[in-house]
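Obj.: predict assembly geometry.
Materials: sequence records (below).
Method: joint structure prediction, all chains together.
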Amino acid sequence: MKKIIIYTVILFMLMYPLLVGFSNYYLTIFFMMSVYVITALGLNLLLGFGGQVSVGQAGFLMVGAYSVAILSSKVGLPFIVTLPLAGIITGIVGLIIGLSAARLKGHFLAVVTLGFGISVPQIILNWQGLTGGYSGMSVAKPTFIFGIHFYYVVVLITLFIIFIIYNLVNSSLGRAFIAIRDSEVAAQSMGINVPLYKLLMFVISSFFTGVAGGLYAYWFSFVSPNDFTLATSFLILAMVVVGGLASIPGAIIGAMVLSLIPHYTDQFVGLTNLIIGVLMVFIILVRPNGLASIKKMSFKNLTFGKKVGNKGVIKDAEIG
Amino acid sequence: MKKFNVHLVLLMMVLVLAACGGEGNAKDSTDNKKLSDYVQGVTDKEILVGLTGPQTGPVAEYDKVRKGIQAYFNYVNENGGVKGKKLKLITYDDQYQPAKTVQGMQRLIEEEKVFGIIYPIGSSNISASLDLLKESKIPVVGLGTPSSKFIIPPIPNLYGMQFNVSIEAKIMVDYIANQLGAKKIAIAYQNDDFGIESLNAAVDAIKELDAEIIVEKEVSFLSSDQDYSTQAQQLVQAKPDAILMLATPVPAAALRQEMHKLGATDIPYVVSVTGGQDKNQFNLAGKDVWEGVITAIPFASYEISEYPDIDKYTQQIKKDFNEKDLGALTQAAWGTAQVFVEGLNRIEGDLTWESYINALNSLDNWEGSIFDRITYTPENRYGNTTLHMVEAKNGNLEEIGRPIYYDPNTGEMSYQ
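Observations (raw structure tokens):
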């Protein structure tokens, strides 16, 4: 059954451009879903599986987007080189942020990542010589062999990243992340190098987020300091919470739901944020483990704010 | 993925498909379309007009643009519409994020199939959408940016409206030299696209002046700066006859506060339109501190305007929205909507993109809007080139002298 679903989803993704008549708008909706799916998976790796709080993911997205913009426009490197490089550069930035994660936890780590998320747009705004400052940068659209539409490249990369992350969390590395999340002392006593693995979490998470940012720059052919704000970081956090912490399907579903909401609500002033806020509160109260935890929608299963195990929302979360 | 939820996956696919339905999915190829016979967004009963702009987020104040346009469209519709058709404004919130602007534009042009776009806001937002706007060839009226790069050289389907920085700098410099009689000026500018373009235009304007005037000092700052004391001290030490401040509202107010602390408010402080046109500056800087500041506005404020139909603006805004929404932003939006509708009214024959663009290009010193006069030609896309110099007095912006008109064809300025 699982295989049938996966093949159906892949078939749907391949047929989607034909279903929408190659409408740029609907392709962009799907594209933004893909960017947020990758980013939410990256954050879920940190927060859901690793227990490391990050509220600055927008900063990583922006580093990735500007890496592509600078490398392609100023250095003239091709897509095949710039996209991995964007991930690597963002991974290095993630390493630097991760250094503080090795020493900090909880609120203090949240403040560090928050500061990072706020400072990146400011650095870009003020580093005018490199980034173009306020006016942003144009990025040339990539061309592919046989004239393949960029959409299919995005689909391929997204599926590949989902596959990598799925295997990662089910590997010894993923189990080490979960062990650290559940108890750092216990993990250490089992021989897990906690600081090293925390660093790895940040590097891997920021690498994938950087790739998502790079795709974004190529898709819109333009990047500016206004692209990823603090609100974006909170939106990504909301995706993970709504979808389900420590759940790969959860991150995917959360990213899809919150990417789709604006399509239905944008015509009504302020409604988008209202619905996202209400959904967040509703999910936290009723399904603390997110949409992915819905198996049978019955009143018996609803928690309505009751405590879910000692570890709160992530105790019962599924893996993979 | 042991517990991968089948129903959720199917639900998501249905949702995505539902999102695609209902609005017509086929994308019309605009690459080879002929403007002469192309029209979209026009039915027997309606003309659809699109707007993307910030409605929420850090610059949600700009939602007043939507209110101003909607109010004017309501007014037109209540009075019979345009050629018997009602105007319908479709708006999307872009939160001032360029990618969302692009998405909104794609939706308006390809899915909603609006006839035209009105008042897109933000230089980077318009930059991000520029390829789409050019390729689609859709008429775009009232660019919400003072930058020259979208109108020089002119793009056939794009029409400016926000007062152009280069013309503004010429007028300001002329005023400082010839009306204030300054010989030495200091220029404070915001170190970004807007500020640098304004600075270059001001320096060029000074070189072109007959009067002997020198730039004694140039100081820069960032819009994100919190402390302006250093810049204030540098300006005071330069002992200029006047200070030209090229900035957005917050830095303009913050620097004035520092000048006030140094007791240097007697030096004429001339602020660019963007930084000074709103009366909210009295709140930002302090009523006493902002007193005496000289600035300019692209139309006479509604309280003192001699425009005969100004009451219609104030009444409609109060009726549709709130008295608090009266002000520079809704006034500019109302005026832009007037220009948009005037273009429609001027069309003789079929309503097509080409006939509309030709109609807009026939606006020659048109005085029927809240702006003093509007001119568009295939070569001139400035729209409004008249500025009103004003001084902050008793919580109001009072006009000083007659409006100044800049003729883009001759490059000459004249007092009206």
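Conclusions so far: The domain at 165-297+387-415 of chain B is CATH 3.40.50.2300 (Rossmann fold).
To do: check interface contacts against the pulldown list.
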